[in-house]
Amino acid sequence: MDQDGTSNSNSFSNRLIASVEDLKVYFHSKKGLLHSVDGVSFDIVDGEIMGLVGETGCGKSVTARSFMQLVQTPPGVIAGGKIRFKSKKTGNQIVDLLSLTENQIRELRGERIAMIFQDPGKALNPGLTIRAQIAEVFQEHRENDVFEKAKLSHVLKGFIGVVLKKYMRQETNLFIRLLLFFPPIRSYKKKLDKAIDKLVTEALAETQIPNPEKVMERYPHELSGGMKQRVMIAQAIACNPDLLIADEPTTALDVIVQARILDLIKELQKRHKTSVLYISHDLSLVRKICDRVAVMFAGKIVETGNSDDIFKNPKHPYTKGLIRASFMTHERGKLEEIDGINAT
Amino acid sequence: MALVDQKKIIENEPIYDSAFKVRLTRNLEILSNVLANPTTVIGLIIVILMISMALFAPIITEPNTPDPYQMPRDWKAARSAPFTPGHILGTTNRGGDVFYGVVWGARTSLKLSLLVVSLTLVVGVIIGSIAGIAGGKIDEVLMRIVDVFLSIPELIFALAIAAILGPSFTNIILALVVVFWVKYARIMRAQVIRIKQREYVDAAKIMGASNLQIYLKDILPNSFSPVMVQATLDMGNIVLVGATLSFIGLSEAGIAEWGVLVSEGQAGISAGRWWASTFPGLMVFLWALAFNLVGDGLRDVFDPRTETKR
After folding, report:
1. pTM for the whole structure
2. What fold characterizes domain B50-309?
């Protein structure tokens, strides 16, 4: 491992997009150290949908959040391990996500790795229109694209370019706002707005939202749950990321919408050749959508394999119990017990 | 067949209006909610009357002194009762026109409350945000300082500071700013802590937004409404406390301010000259009442917990 967080270890095969190695995340609590994620290792092959299943509280979400350095420290502690990630944009450079600085990870977030949340109602800012929320991604990561789309690449250099760039990054102050009011900058600004509008509409249309131009002007509370989740997905795939982390994206939705969202994720994954880490506790969903599955229990991965193999002949007793439990919802019977892993 | 129809329905879905219409109906809805409460409407009317009185003071009573905020003295007509020609509300025993004082006092009060509220708002919001976002030791230190400020009753605290600084209107403003910022810091901190744990803040982080952007776009706008309600309530309270300080004599003497006027007329009350204290006193009362009514109304609308009450 070099100082700057890059490494070229041989164990990272070319087929992989990301690989988690012996990840340990602990939390300080009143009762002592909680081993939330305790030595988790799995690989995500480029272009596949990898499932991560397990019961509530087994550390799935913490694992996912570690990808983005979103685990709060304190009370959390990253006790060890590596998450290696191949950034396709920067010449397949392999970086360790856990050792990146705040600024380095910020460049990856949204641009190369994106995330869809469990409850779309909570993950959208209630005070901003859908347009503003999706535009943020483009303003942050696709500045040049926006300028190109607005056919304004020629003004990028020089004073006007500086002003417009500030406008794009929303670092406006009174002086810049005043400048934006006068031609020709005013007309440039309008062109930029139109270009952003177009990009946002395209992103929304890709998630099969009807009437994207109108939905754009709405606030989150005016949309249904399914629509909000589509907006979240549009936001996540707006920059065409290499890895999409879906943290139980359909839990808050009803069954029919759930099926549609799943189809959408699968279709988008195929079209953009994005790799997906799909986190869920719902085995039937995972079986439907994932190529490979890792089963997690009490902070550890107990079984990994092709999803068909795992569902046909589960090897670990926990997996067996989990599969049995999920298919006996209508026949009341005793839940199968297994001996727990002592988590201290 | 059925599929085609369904597609058509989705495309022509009528629930989508134009952006302008959406925004307009939304704002009208908030306005109608505010106006649904009759006490709020009464408060709002008084507030509008008071503010227009303050704004149009030079038109209502023309100043004839070089400094319009100084009471004009008509020594010959001192101690005249209400409805004497030229002095509708009478004069004080030092010849100050009560009507002039009442009208220009509204201007002074508006100046006082706006200045103090905006200054305290800025200071409180900045300190509260720092405490809420930084957390840990910084939060602890800042909040203990706030606790110290809160532990002293606000009137007595303001009185002490104004007395130390010496009697002047500017010093009253300073004293009130020192006393009133703590509430905003408290409210803002609580709000920031609540909002920063929301998932959309994480979502913004995941999109690669910088901390400043997250603060300005996600945290600040969503945590601002309780602060605004408090500001409306304080618009009334500050005039009340300010009038008290002026009454005691911590403001410049002879200024057109309700508290000063009350204290000027105080000596005449026992001799039966009630008017010089009553009218400005009534104005202070109405001002504080009106802003409290409006503030309560706004709180009912913005705070979802009180919604079922009406």
Report:
1. 0.74
2. MetI-like fold (1.10.3720)
